[in-house]
Specification:
There is one protein chain. The protein is mostly helical. It has a domain of 30 residues. Helices cover 77% and strands 0% of the residues. The protein contains three helices and no strands. The longest helix has 23 residues.
Length: 53
């Protein structure tokens, strides 16, 4: 199986994995957005010494 997966081109490998993540894609996007927002707030508070509100 490893040999067959190594033999796949980049596009074939992507086509193999895409359906696995497609179901949860919106969840991944929302979690990424939340983590980015939280990191921005932390940067504002800890780096720039600003107030959140």
């Amino acid at each position: 199986m490893v040999e067959r997966m190594i033999a796949l081109s980049s596009e074939e490998f992507q086509d193999l994995l895409r359906p696995c993540f497609q179901e949860d894609e919106i969840k991944l996007i929302l979690v990424g957005a939340f983590l980015g927002f939280a990191a921005g707030i932390c940067q504002l508070v800890f780096v720039f010494g600003g107030s959140v509100f």
